[in-house]
Specification:
elongated; eight-stranded antiparallel β-barrel; Rossmann fold; eight-stranded antiparallel sheet; 5 domains; Dna Ligase, domain 1; D-amino Acid Aminotransferase, Chain A, domain 1; alpha+beta
Length: about 675
């Protein structure tokens, strides 16, 4: 236990709050956290165990409320505050307020943050340190007219950047003066909502660079170490999607130049704590981009290759002002890659997807998962929509990428739309595999990366079987004949001619035709494709389907009529439509009455020879927690009863045959 730091208030939420808490627990340090009105039952609140409500759902009322957070730290008896990522993590006034309250701020000094948190001030520091910077405006501006003037002073295209914060928020590319004011207003609004400041910096746009960042740590007295670099070029609209360490694209000389520049920059300001120096690399040139004076979302990949806990590094520097490791002790081993899972709909422009997460299943072996949600958590419109990070490590980049692809394919999130399928497409792209990308690669290739891939007939068959198993589990060894099983309408071993129900995926409808199960082999047809396959549950919500020519392992979830399937071919969502009666005039004329949907017979009101009147209830069926009555379409005599109580019957199975008779014959 670190004796001088007895309790830390984690002034953040979600996965990063949970991640910081884990380090605190390992070090024997007590921790508490904060929450908004919308986060009262969030995972970070439940996992950490002590939390103070600091305001309403909007970030400005809670996670950006400096006075409320400092008061919360005092209330829980904290001796230090960790700001986490985003929100107030780069706010110098917050750091100063924490220190003024007699608490330790786990991060750079307020003075250093003021020199670096504003991107224009950071550029001036870089120039003073002899590090190349991107040509741009002489300062940052909070007035729209000043931003517009700065744009017109440069040749297009230019980049609008929020002066505060990071994460791609408040960033816009301006390629034309048409709509310039709208672009500026949009960037300023996003900057203000994300970081509490609308200030915008204008820079010349650099085409197709790589985004490389260097992780550094300083003791506040001039001693600085680096933890090597990270490659962050896979971005969507300047928001990082995939990160890896180290960068396999850098030549040794360029790597050394970047590492030296990052250390020199931190040494110049006697940097204290953890920080990231970010650069753009274009050919043989590199340019200082910004300094993030905080923990980064992608710090995980650096931890994986160095074996260090960077949160522990932050805490130990804050405790005694000393670096816990010397430069010669820092070694980079292997390769690590991280993917960010967002609750968003890639096919609809990546708009956030809000709502309840019904289930989340993530791989467990050789994979690191950092998440801030679990089943029952809600994704709200108030905060960043990232719900988890998946991190892999291997001796080589190729192996690490492969492990990440396998992990993404095995991950299942239900209840909200996610970018899992997009990530799978991205990781399989040849340019990503060969690492010949730049920071606009995703934006250029977006149409191919968000293309909806229709599920194969085998995947639909698995979904059909999963839905059946969930709603109508097998009751005995041989349930496919007699009163214990499906009563098939055609009396043979082939799938029925009429569909039992329909599965819908991406506006495509698939008819499911059921057949018997013989010797554990399921027989069914998807439209015109007949499948006979063995289906085995390998673990909770995981299965293996063995077809004649291949086997497919899948993760799945079922909720009401929704089925989610995740497998090596992607993630798919299906909706079941079981009530599909098409018993028309021909059936009624023949007197053969069929079940309107798949389900269980719970009442048989007639026997052969009974006389019935029009609308009399002959059979009662239960399905999907509903009771359905099969009524006489006319006056008649029962000539056949083809079901019994307890039977599981398929949709369109004949249950009663009725001979029509004159009404007067019943009187």
């Amino acid at each position: 236990m670190i004796q001088t730091m007895t309790k830390i208030l984690i002034a953040n939420r979600g996965e990063i709050a949970c991640r910081i808490h884990r380090t605190c627990t390992r070090l024997g340090i007590a921790s508490a956290t904060i929450h908004s009105e919308a986060d009262r039952e969030a995972l970070h609140v439940r996992e950490i165990g002590e939390s103070i409500e600091v305001g309403g759902a909007a970030a400005a009322d809670s996670y950006l409320n400096v006075a409320a957070i400092v008061a919360a730290a005092k209330r829980v008896g904290a001796t230090a505050v960790h700001p986490g990522i985003g929100f107030l993590s780069e706010n110098a006034d917050f750091a100063a307020a924490v220190e003024a309250a007699g608490l330790t701020f786990i991060g750079p000094r307020a003075e250093t943050m003021r020199r670096f948190a504003d991107k224009w001030d950071a550029k001036r520091e870089a120039v003073a340190a002899g590090i190349p910077v991107i040509e741009g405006s002489d300062g940052s501006f909070a007035d729209l007219a000043d931003v517009e003037k700065a744009v017109r002073a440069l040749s297009l295209p230019v980049l609008l950047k929020a002066a505060a914060g990071g994460g791609g928020r408040g960033v816009r590319v301006v390629s034309s003066l048409a709509g310039l004011r709208e672009s500026i207003e949009s960037a300023m609004r996003e900057a203000h909502s994300s970081f509490g400041r609308p200030d915008i910096l204008v820079e010349q746009f650099i085409d197709k660079p790589r985004h490389i960042e260097v992780q550094v740590a300083g003791d506040g007295a001039g001693q600085v170490v680096h933890f090597y670099e990270r490659e962050c070029s896979l971005q969507r609209r300047f928001q990082k999607v995939i990160e890896e360490a180290p960068s396999s694209a850098l030549q040794p000389k360029m790597r050394q130049r970047l590492l030296e520049a990052a250390v020199r920059m931190a040494e110049r300001v006697s940097y204290r704590g953890l920080g990231t120096m970010e650069f753009l690399v274009a050919g043989e040139k590199f340019f200082f981009l910004e300094c993030n004076p905080r923990l980064q979302v992608e710090h995980t990949v650096t931890e994986e290759i160095t074996g260090l806990d960077l949160v522990e590094v932050q805490i130990r520097i804050a405790v005694n002002g000393k670096l816990p490791v010397r430069q010669e002790e820092v070694r980079a081993n292997g390769h690590s890659v991280q993917a960010r899972i967002y609750a968003e709909d890639p096919s609809a422009g990546f708009i956030p997807s809000t709502g309840e997460i019904y289930a989340i299943a993530v791989p467990g072996s050789n994979v690191r998962v950092d998440t801030g949600v679990d089943a029952g958590s809600y994704v709200t419109p108030y905060y960043d929509a990232m719900i988890a990070k998946i991190i892999t490590r291997a001796p080589t980049r190729a192996e690490a990428i492969h492990r990440l692809k396998v992990a993404i394919e095995a991950t299942l999130v239900t209840g909200v739309q996610t970018n899992l399928k997009f990530l799978s497409h991205l990781l399989n792209h040849p340019a990503v595999v060969s690492n010949t990308v730049d920071n606009r690669f995703i934006d250029r290739e977006l149409s191919s990366l968000v293309t909806e891939v229709a599920p194969s007939s085998e995947i639909v068959a698995i979904a059909a079987k999963v839905w059946l198993e969930h709603n109508y589990p097998r009751l005995e060894a041989d349930i496919w004949s007699g009163h214990g099983g499906w009563r098939l309408s055609d009396g043979n071993n082939h799938p029925s001619q009429k569909p039992s129900y329909v599965l819908v995926a991406s506006d495509r409808r698939y008819s499911v035709h059921l057949g018997p199960e013989i010797s554990s082999i399921t027989s069914l047809a998807i439209d015109d494709h007949i499948h006979a396959f063995a289906f085995r549950k390998t673990a909770e919500n995981r299965c293996l389907a063995v077809f004649s020519d291949r086997a497919i392992a899948a993760a799945y979830r079922v909720r009401n009529q929704q089925i989610w399937i995740s497998c090596p071919f992607g993630s798919f969502t299906f909706a079941a439509e079981p009530f599909l009666t098409d018993a028309g005039r021909d059936e009624q004329a023949s007197g053969k009455l069929s079940a309107p949907m798949i389900g269980k017979i719970i009442k048989v009101n007639v026997v052969v020879g009974d006389l019935v009147k029009e609308n009399d209830t002959l059979i009662v069926q239960e399905s999907m927690k509903m009771e359905l009555s099969i009524n006489a379409p006319y006056d008649g005599r029962v000539t056949s009863v083809d079901c019994a109580c307890g039977d599981l019957v398929e949709r369109n199975s004949i249950v009663v045959t009725l001979e029509q008779i004159e009404t007067r014959a019943l009187n």
